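[Automated response] Your request has been received and processed.

Submitted sequence:
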Amino acid sequence: MKPVILNNAIILTGGIATGKSSVAKILKKYGYEVIDSDEIAHEALEIKQDEIVERFGDKILDSGCISRPLLGRIVFSSQESKKALEAILHPYIFDEIVKRATFLEQKRKVYFLDIPLYFETKKRYLGREIWCVASDEKIQLERLMLRNNLSKQEALARINAQMPLGEKLKESDVIIKNNSTLEELEHRVKDQLKLIR
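Generated structure:
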């Protein structure tokens, strides 16, 4: 499949728990539009619930809705399950991103496309540049364990399910390091925004 060319989009990506959502919040604070692929994925979970339950069984339900932690445990422990879920969700996510991006392209202003698994999904969108949020491995692991209430083993499984961060950094145009405070991160994002042509 040929990638969709988005002339005004900056791709925002990074490893799990490196602070990408924090960067997205900062960008919104400075008036930039952000298309959030995770938000679209949540919508897709609701819209495709029957299909997902049919594939994975009602053990993933909690009070009649899909429990992301329960589904996550299955998906992150098996490559086959991961692929099966992606086959259900990705077409909807792709179409929705293209729809929103097409609308923003008409404004002829820079906007951001927040896609955590940008490289893993074979770069289906080509923007003007790629920003990658990165943290040291130890910090990333601690954040993920704390944020998602995971054991060290579960957190490592999620990190290892993604393309290694070092490889993502090699393919990115801009690297935003996030090993310190939110204030420090905001300074880095602001400095980078000044360089946008």
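Summary generated for your ticket: Strands lie at 4-5, 9-14, 34-36, 61-62, 65-66, 111-114, 125-126, 129-134, 174-177. The CA atoms of residues 165 and 173 lie 14 Å apart.
If you did not submit this request, please reply to this message.
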